[in-house]
Amino acid sequence: MRILLINPNSTAAMTAGIEKAARAAALPTTEVRAEHPEGVPPAVECYADEALCIPPTLALAEARAAAWDAIVLACHSDPGIDAVRERIVNPVIGIGEASYAAAIAAGRLFSLITLTQRFVRRKREQIRRLGLLDRCASIRTLGAGVVEGFEGKERLRDRFLAEAEAAVRQDGADCVVLGCSGMVGIAEDLQAHLGVPVVDPVVAAVKLAEAIGPIRRGPRR
Predict the structure, then answer these.
(1) Using CB atoms within 10 A as the burial measure, which of 14, 149, 182, 207 is most buried?
(2) 3-state secondary structure string, 102-120?
(3) Domain that holds residue 48
(4) What is the CATH number of the domain that holds 74?
């Protein structure tokens, strides 16, 4: 199977990190590559960033679709997912949707760890659209932007752990979702300390793509 991950922001180091995490999660028989479109913001942190990244992301997905079995949108907000699904026949998986699907399979109540307070309303809207508000124990923030959260994961480790522990001990979560593709590589460490499942959204999306890849969508209508 061949999976293309599209990072809707232009931070090349993040694209490389996404690809590394995806390769580590994929089966040996799965081919994985990550790309990002040109002319998009360095991070997707607000509604305007999402609006700017959607047309180039859609164009890249259309240009690459024929060569890949599944497309993964590697931004937790899943920007443009309905538009991409409308335009290509491949399975299209958003890491946000995949992470929530994994969370409700792994536990009864999940907490989402996101970046700054400005993300909270958007994340709550996303969870509401998926019909999962009653499964969400809390949304907690790190007080760091997308690029800072990716580049400073080691420095922010104690903050990640403190928020995740509070989600479990105070909010009643029995599963924690990491709400950004830049948070790759820390789920196992957090899980070892917390004793509850921690969902890496990139890993969840890759495994979901492998599971549903043989289920091809029909022609565009």
Answers:
(1) 182
(2) HHHHHCCCEEEEECCHHHH
(3) 2-94+204-212
(4) 3.40.50.12500
